[in-house]
Every structure is written in structure tokens, then in C-alpha cells.
Amino acid sequence: MIQGPGARPTDVERDESLIANRGGFSFLFVHGWTWIAAAALTFVLPIKVAALVYLFQGFVAFPLSLLLEHRLGYKTLSMKENSLVSLFVLIAVAQGLALPASIVVYNLNPLYLPVVFAATNGGHFLPYSWLHRTKVYVFLAIVAAFGPFAILIAGGAEASFHASGFVVGVVMVISAWYVRASAERRIAVPDSSSVGPVPV
Question: What is the DSSP-derived secondary structure letter of residue 194?
Fold first, then answer.
């Protein structure tokens, strides 16, 4: 593979990304709790309003996750520092392209929106398993995508409407602690297969 001037090995940049924000801990942790909150609100809000809470909870979670990341002293890498940052951004934004599908489902029957939205979120987690060097993102992607769908098949639309946020949220919070622990272990004992030192 030909690398241009100043180019660095991909494994080094993967390690930097993993260690900088502990594998995406704050984003998983905060978004997990907003999914749980959205599920809890389905019991007190009208169906259409609760469905919108599911759909737009990320607008609250994203700035809160950045705030938590800052408070924890983690670092948000820039594209100038790490070439993989652009890939992280593309993966995160990709789920937004499914917004028209979610809007169609909302208009047809808002009870089904959490299942569709959870599948969209689940799918976008998969590439992080390679980027952050942990299979927990594969587990998270599968559970988030198929968990609510399984509830829909087994218990019906109303059951999935109430439970989807709990399923996705709980697995995200659990995964957050797992990836953080994985990153901390990597800081303590760098993988010998990586090229160059692992920055802390």
C-alpha cells in the first residue's frame, strides 16, 4: 500500500480514536439513557408525540454526550489529527439518510416507528466494531436492530412501541461501560500488532 507524505498506519489511528474518547463511551452512555427515557415517556404521552420523542431524542443526546466527554477529559479528534475521523462522521451521519423512511412509517402508523428507527441505529453501529477494535459493537448492532423487531413479532406493535427504547437503551449503556473498559485495558497494555506507540 502506497502512503503519501505524512501518512500514518491505520492501526495507529484506530488506537488513537479508541483511546481519545474511550471507544465512544459518552455517546453510547448518553444516547442509551435518552432511548430509555423515550421508552418511559411512551406510557404517559400520546402515541404520536411519544414517537416523535423517539425520533428526535438524538438532538438532546448529542450535545449532552459532547458535554460528558468534555467533563470526563476525553478528547474529540479533528480530521487534521486523525484521517479516520472523517469516516466516523460519515458513519454517524449515514443513519440520518434513513429519516425519510422513519417519516413514512410515522405517517402510516407511529407505533412501528421505534422498530424502524432502532434498526437504523443498529445498522450504523456495525462498522465501529472494526474502528474501535471490539466485537461488542457487533453485539450492540444485532440486539438494537433485531431486539425490537423480535418484540414486534412476539408481542405486537404496542408492546414493541413501549419496549424498544428499553432494549436499545439498556444494551447501549452496557456496551458503553464495556468499550470504556476495553479502551482502558488497551491503554495499559498496547497491542503489539500496532505500529508505533499508542498515545494516551
Answer: S
pLDDT tens digits along 124-141: 899 888 888 889 999 999
φ, ψ for residue 77 (rounded to 5)? -70, 150
Tell me how far apart the alpha carbons of residues 149 and 155 are, in angstroms, rounded to a whole number: 10
Alpha-helical regions (H) of the chain: 10-20, 25-41, 47-56, 58-71, 85-94, 99-108, 113-125, 128-131, 136-155, 157-188
Give me the residues of the chain with pLDDT under 70, please. Answer: 1-9, 78-79, 83, 190-200
C-alpha distances out from residue 153 to 10, 104, 114, 156, 196, Å: 42, 20, 14, 6, 49
Q: Give the separation between CA 65 and CA 71, rounded to whole angstroms.
A: 10
Please, how many CA atoms are within 13 Å of residue 89, restricted to the half-sphere of its CB?
A: 9
Place of cell 472523517: 86
Classify residue 95 by its DSSP letter. G
- Burial zone of 44 (CB within 10 Å; 0-12 exposed, 13-18 middle, 19+ buried): exposed
- DSSP-derived secondary structure letter, 173: H
Which cell numbers hold the place of 20?
A: 481519545
Q: Which amino acid, 134? A: T
